[in-house]
Amino acid sequence: MSSLAAIRVHGTAWTTNEIVGTAIAIPGFCFWSLARLQLGQSFAVLPQAKELVRHGLYSKIQHPVYVFGAIIVVGAIVFSGRPMFFVLLLVLVPLQLTRIRKERAALEEKFGDEYREYRKSTWF
Asked: Is the pLDDT of residue 15 over 90?
């Protein structure tokens, strides 16, 4: 038995996929949670421009909730050991990119040059 498979949960040894998937998903979830907390009252289901959040993770990444959400999905797919589930990303990513475009338009309309400068100084 490899050292990776030595991790046991309820008496069952984890596979390498389960260990690697968990190692991807847990940090992704932690950073996703932090990003969501840092977004605070600016969180909205529909794209809105309440406030230009520029602190914490948002000082480096424009859309950390989406980035780390995708990482969680990748971790879950690796955990499952079923590569065919990567098709989920083929659906999820274009949907998220569409939402990002709408959010960017709302933020640019409300904050103008301030938002454009923010975008230049951050990733994605």
From this structure: yes
